[in-house]
Records
---
Amino acid sequence: MLRKYADSIDVSQYSDVKCPACKGKRLLYGDDCIACHGEGYMPAGQADQLDASLYKMVKCPSCKGKSKTKNYECRDCNGEGELLKYYVDKYSL
């Protein structure tokens, strides 16, 4: 029985690169980076598919950046007035 194997395998997509969201610093706005789970690195293939714009702070759509809704601390942004675009898009706030 004749078996055929690939002459070479491109493993570059599996090598670790700095996380594009936290730039390898492991933290994103004071908390563990949610893109790399606080590791600072991720496989190159995963980093290539990551949309770094989702990890920028934007004005909270619920309180419109005012930190309060109806005189109560905004539940969505915990009274911060802003949150990651990732959460706005993920939960359609």
---
Amino acid sequence: DGKGGLKVDKGQTLDPKDAIDVKDADGKETTLPEKSKVEWTKDKEPDFSQAGKDVTGEVTVTYPDHT
């Protein structure tokens, strides 16, 4: 799930790891496996160039086994 209500200053960036909540199948908070890759999805990165604008982005998580 994504985190709502995050605030980022104009021109700053947000680490995609900080934009997601990681939960197991039961909805309990958990962590990603070691060496998981979390990145903004190509062409769906949030645009932080304008102050006061609500933006969305999409995150892709790749597990160590590449799934």
---
Amino acid sequence: MARLRLWQSISSFRVVWNLPILHAGIVLGYLFLHLLPASLWAAALTPISTQSTIAGTLRIPAYPPDPTGQFWNQTGWNRVGGVTRNERGVFSYTPAAILQGPILNAASSATSVRGVTLHAKNDNSRLSYVGRSYGVGASAGLEDIILDGGEQVTSLLYTYEELGYATNVKCGRNDSSAWGVHFIRNRTTAAFPDEYLACGVLPNSLYQAGTFFTDSGCPNLIPGYAADWYAVLSVDASNEHVFALQGVSHASRNMFAIATGTGEYTILDKVQCEAYFIPQTFEVSVNLTSSLITVNPLGNSTVDIDPSALTYGAGTGLLPRYVVGEATYLSQGITGLYSSAMGDTFISNIQNVAMARNASVNDTSVVMDGISSALESMLDDLLLSIASAQIEIAWNDSAIAAATTPAATTVTVAAMRLGTFEYVAIIATLNFLIVATYCVEFVRTRAWRGLPLFDYNDIASVVVAVSRGGDQLGAAIASAHKEKGTIWTGDSAHMEGANTRMSLRFNEGMPTLEATDPTEEDDEDTYLKADYDDTQKFR
């Protein structure tokens, strides 16, 4: 009887809590196994946000020959190319005149006190660089990606390779520096500033007969060398606000020299730096979700982006020369009366280096590293500004060959998939086992031929089958209660003798439930286990 109640509970998918503990556990386990596939199917069919990669093309800056000097091959403050202002930003081939603020602001924090430096791209793209830009990545936010196949998708990230320069600046103090600032004219009234002359030569200055100044005007002149010079203004009848940087590209070298007055910029005085423009290949990664650009050097390149490098040598062509000149114009163009914006930029970054190292701002290595990293940032942004101008100004001008070139791009896009691999694998395995079990039973039962039609879940069928078995079952239960001095009240939880063995047999061709002798052998025919043969007669 207990076994009959177990089968009935399993067949009806419900737990009869007054079953024996073992049987209740079996029912719970069966229900769990029955509901598990549905849960796995739900997990396997749930849409999940994921990512996919597709190929695309992005136009990046190129530097074709510019014989007219209208574009990237300009000289000095020549503004033939003009300034372009549009919804994407302000673009010019003279960034020292147009973009001084963003360039110096980025250089003032070239070294981060905490973590990696972030600085905004000098346009309206709202993108920022993580670390250095190396002058590449101008296309991000300015050019659209053309996807292979023309799909309309939501791009999350894209990467591409671009050639550029890994600019490296080395600085040191040269006490015999021939670049200096000299008093020229005192103000006559409070309304007029004092005039100072920044002049002299650098170690790589051009050698030529004669000089532009007399020894009294520029005492540091070396006979036979052409001097560089420009005026610096100051107030307060002192030179404490005077700062002057000069860059010279000559003899395959790109050098800078700094001269200051006796005030707050003194730690920068007589510092000389050399910049190396090393052709490299870079991987540019643009994360459109976080609006961040990451540039990773991939190694030196045998190709220089500057076509004039074939004449002058790698890293010493017209483009690096122009950038060195623009750095000088940053100093010339903003010689303030009360302070120097470029001098303040170097001081700010030196302080950042000192805080990052917990060192003194007067430490020589701190000063030199602060100047070199700030100057690298300026050169990076100057290169980036010229690259952006190639995209926005020169790209459609007939006076120059193609100013952009296509670059293969790997685009990461938003996608959806059904389920995860783990759930799909589990449900596939479970389904395989179910189908395999089905096939085994199909073969074992010979396509289920001869199985009885009796349904012990149907109450009418059970009543008829039990009535045909006589009163053996009822007598057994009554006897069990009588021995305990009780009677069965109909409560299935208090049915003494419920473990009476039953067998399903054919009696006169009809299904019959009979109570069996407890002394009978406990084989597979008991507990409602009906065996059959080809004649459908039960043994």
